């Protein structure tokens, strides 16, 4: 009986081995067929592209990107982005010149940097980083915290400081603004605008309407003198201050908003403006 069982086990093992062999052979045939098919497809596509290249067929807009997805946008107008997108000559998924497209987008006023990503089958995704605005510039532009001046098609409706001056010194003027804001805040005064002339003369207008004329000589010292006197000047009359002119070595000129435009001044004969 033991011998019969052993023979039966041997027969089963032989049949199992034979089954695996047949399965392996079928898989090999299927793999060969699949590889042959892929080789044929690859060869066909290669011949097609060679024929297209030889014939000079324009493939620039094959699998065209026709959907724009934008992230990080705050001040940039949507129509500006779509106009730039539509101006791309070849918007094919495979033919799009990413570097040239990034350069085109960065050419828009608000855009500082941009990252492009193509999403199959037809989407161009933009991650934009805009300039961080500090103030308006010259009535038609904006200056960033880094001192970059640019001119958007439409200025945002924001309560920003207004800066005016030669564009070549925009960076220096933004630094002055931040310094002056810090000093004036000690007296709870807020800058509304700063004007810097070609000769370097500084005029500050405060939010409450006071014009502070500092000139182009010892500006920091004159600003300190204004801060030391502003409380006394405000209490000198009930009328609001119109301007304070500190362009004098040892004195200042003050005007209040009155009907007679009365002025109080402290001057000497050796004034230095």
Features:
single chain; disordered N terminus; Rossmann fold; 38% helix; three-stranded mixed beta sheet; alpha/beta; disordered C terminus; 273 residues; Ubiquitin-like (UB roll); 5 helices
Please tell me about this protein's structure.
By secondary structure, this protein is of the alpha/beta class. It folds into three domains: 1-57; 67-130, membrane protein fhac (Ubiquitin-like (UB roll), Roll), CATH 3.10.20.310; 133-266, Cell division protein FtsQ/DivIB (Rossmann fold, 3-Layer(aba) Sandwich), CATH 3.40.50. Helices cover 38% and strands 25% of the residues. Strands 6-5-4-7-8-9-10-11-12-13 form a ten-stranded mixed β-sheet, covered by helices on one side. The radius of gyration is 38 Å and the shape is rod-shaped. The chain starts with a helix and ends in a 7-residue tail after the last strand.
Total number of strands: 13
First-to-last CA distance: 128 Å
What structural category do the secondary elements indicate? alpha/beta
CATH class of the largest domain: Alpha Beta
Overall average residue pLDDT: 82
Q: What percent strand?
A: 15-25%
Strand order of the largest sheet: 6-5-4-7-8-9-10-11-12-13
Percentage of residues in helical conformation: 25-40%
- Please tell me what the overall shape is: rod-shaped
CATH architecture of the largest domain: 3-Layer(aba) Sandwich
Rg from Cα: 38 Å
Are there runs of 5+ residues with pLDDT below 50, and where?
Answer: 1-5, 267-273
């Amino acid at each position: 009986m033991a011998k019969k069982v052993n023979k039966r086990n041997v027969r089963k093992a032989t049949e199992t081995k034979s089954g695996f062999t047949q399965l392996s052979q079928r898989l090999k045939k299927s793999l060969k067929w699949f590889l042959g098919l892929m080789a044929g497809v690859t060869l066909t596509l290669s011949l097609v592209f060679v024929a297209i290249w030889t014939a000079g067929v324009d493939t620039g807009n094959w699998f065209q990107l026709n959907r724009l997805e934008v992230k990080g946008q705050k001040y940039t107008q949507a129509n500006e982005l779509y106009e730039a997108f539509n101006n791309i000559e070849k918007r094919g998924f495979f033919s799009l010149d990413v570097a040239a497209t990034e350069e085109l987008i960065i050419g828009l006023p608000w855009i500082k940097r941009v990252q492009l990503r193509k999403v199959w089958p037809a989407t161009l995704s933009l991650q934009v980083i805009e300039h961080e605005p500090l103030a308006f510039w010259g009535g038609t532009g904006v200056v960033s915290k880094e001192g970059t001046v640019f001119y958007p098609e439409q200025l945002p409706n924001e309560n920003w400081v207004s800066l005016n001056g030669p564009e070549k010194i925009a960076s220096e003027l933004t630094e002055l603004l931040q310094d002056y804001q810090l000093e004036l805040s000690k007296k709870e005064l807020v800058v509304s605008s700063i004007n810097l002339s070609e000769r370097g003369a500084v005029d500050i207008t405060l939010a409450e309407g006071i014009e502070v004329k500092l000139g182009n000589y010892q500006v920091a010292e004159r600003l300190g003198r204004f801060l030391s006197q502003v409380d006394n000047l405000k209490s000198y009359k009930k009328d609001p201050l119109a301007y304070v002119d500190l362009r004098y070595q040892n004195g200042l000129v003050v005007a209040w908003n009155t009907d007679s435009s009365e002025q109080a001044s402290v001057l000497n004969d050796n004034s230095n403006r």
